[in-house]
Amino acid sequence: MNRIVIPALLATACLALSGCGSHTRVVQTDETCGKQMTDLQDALASGAMTQHEYDKAHRAAMERCTRRDDHD
Fold first, then answer.
1. For 15-44, b where at least 16 C-beta lie within 10 A, e where not — what string?
2. Can you give the residue ranges of every domain in the chain?
3. Sorting pLDDT into bands at 50, 70 and 90, what band is 19?
């Protein structure tokens, strides 16, 4: 359970804090895009995040994955 909740809480905290201070944010992760998507889906299914939080985090993760794929 903690394997699912902790990444979801971290993702939620990052999204919540992204509006504070500077508009520039750097997100660095070694997780695969598939792992990120699975973690987000698990967090939504477990109730650790709302649909709105999931949608926002999913869009952000997809953008990161797309940018990473474009640079490889």
1. beeeeeeeeeeeeeeeeeeeebbebbebbb
2. 32-41+51-72
3. low
